[in-house]
Amino acid sequence: MISFEELSVIGYSSALLCIVSGLLLYQFRSVLFRVGRSIKQPYLKHLSYRPLIQNQHFVSQWSRADIVAEAAYLGLNIGWLYFKSETLDTAGRRAANLCLGNFLVLFLTPHLNTLTSVLGLQRRTICRLHGSVGVVTALLLTFHIIAAALHAPFPVKIAENKWAVVAAASLGGSVLICAPAIKLRWYEVFLRLHQSLAILSVYGIWVHVPPRRLLPLIHLYMLAGIVVLSMIALGLLVLYRNGTFGYSHPRADILSSRGAVFIRVNLSRPVHVKAGQYINLWICMPSQRFRSLFESHPFVVVSWSDRAVYELDLLIEPRSGFTRDLLRVSKTKVEPYRALFSGPHGNSIPLGNYEVVLMIASGYGIAAQLPYLKQLIHGYNSRKARSRRVHLVWELKTLDLAAATEWVLDNALDEDTLDNGYILQISIYVDHVKKGKKMSPRAMVIKGLPPWLSIFEAEADGKLIRRVQEESSARGNMIVTVSACTAVRQELRAIARNYVHENVTLIELDYQPPRSELDREHVYKPPDPPGRQDSIRGTASHQDAAQRHSKERRLSGSTLVERSGSLRRLPGSTLVEESSSEAK
């Protein structure tokens, strides 16, 4: 047993080591930055962009980088478990301490969305980290139970042992219900059950730990302190932002157009939301859906402003459950519903630091791209962004969604007029349309599936950038933001591997559309890396067309449609008429 004096020395030494390490890292930050840049390209090409299993019929969602990270984390726990463990009983006790240490990571915040803003990581990275820590914690607990059972008798009638069984069963159950068949089908039930089992497991461990064991008790006290402090801090922040202290509550105005749901959240206090961030929204409508009292859902904020605002706009795909009820409610004439929200969550990508921005969306993935589009145009007009070329490629099944959101694209085209720069081009690829149509010199509706390789190469060549004479002809850095179906993301990762040495970065945004009919339209074939000259010759037709569009940018930019009205009353337009004719 560690004495208090020994524990104090360990704590002091650890704090001193952290301070010295921080000073050294700050002193040699330039060297570390150069080392990071040198290993970035091989990391992206051989680990991050390359799936674990890849063939024409199956592509794994796990990349090699994911497997390396998982193996390193598991190996670290196994190595620490067996380091100088002379007996099975010693290893079992150490497994219990490691289990409690991992518990601290699992209970950092009441909700994982908070960690996205605090740590600056994407939501799926946080979820995967949480799942990995949970699985390793369950494995360590299983090893501790086996080691304890083999070392001495384990009478279940004793209260401490009985609660140990309850804690183990609760932790195991919380891991098992994370199966996609349960999690995706009954998400709200899964979430509340998962949280309840986690709390029950902690209480069971608290009862099981003997009072004389100092280190486990320290872990438990730290865990309880972290949970209480984080809940108090987040609770006060949510209450403040929702105007509980002397202000009216936020209201949610639910609207719809052509099957798409729009929600305008009127806030009681102004909130600054960065591009790409999302909120967790709770809407009180018990008369329409009683379960709404216990449900909250994350939604991407499609509106953007460079200052704090009182209104947030959301674009939602009605699928099943809560979102399907939102579509039904939007068709009734009712007053705005009372709402609460937490956030904004997530991090924002500085797209303005890149000269070429290729934005790729399929279906409702446009919701993740719209705030970045507004931010880029505003940054270009205010001369705060380096971007000289922005190309939005949108893949759709029909024109219904484009007709419902055309007012946003109109605004972007209207604002992109500084010095006749016209940096924005919009290409909408529609499968079910009679024929392609040129809506304006900078917006086209094209029949068929997008040729991703040709589009990627044309933008990477940098010949579509409009420059003044004194500027260099070499292309600067380029970023590709993706919010698309699974098959499109897989194809783009394979293409991006051949361009990492040309200063091209691929980013998958937080929101990705669920599996839909668009996935079945794409048959993924791993592309062979062709020679650079061959690939350029293979896309000559696309280059010629792109050059024609570049010449046409000297004309005054026109919008997709003449817009008037608001979300409640979308006017008749070219896209709307085209969509209606296709429906007929």
What does this structure look like?
Residues 263-346 form the FAD-binding domain. The protein has 584 residues and is of the alpha/beta class. It folds into 3 domains: 4-152 and 210-241, no CATH class; 251-345, Elongation Factor Tu (Ef-tu), domain 3 (Beta Barrel), CATH 2.40.30; 351-466 and 474-520, Rossmann fold, CATH 3.40.50. The protein has helices at 4-27, 29-48, 64-82, 88-106, 113-119, 123-151, 159-176, 180-183, 187-208, 214-241, 322-330, 366-381, 400-404, 406-415, 452-461, 486-496, 517-521, 532-538, 540-552, 574-583, and strands at residues 251-257, 260-271, 278-284, 297-300, 309-316, 337-345, 356-362, 389-396, 424-430, 437-440, 443-447, 478-483, 504-508. Strands 10-11-9-8-7-12-13 form a 7-stranded mixed beta sheet, with helices on both faces. The protein has a 6-stranded antiparallel beta sheet with strand order 4-3-6-1-2-5.
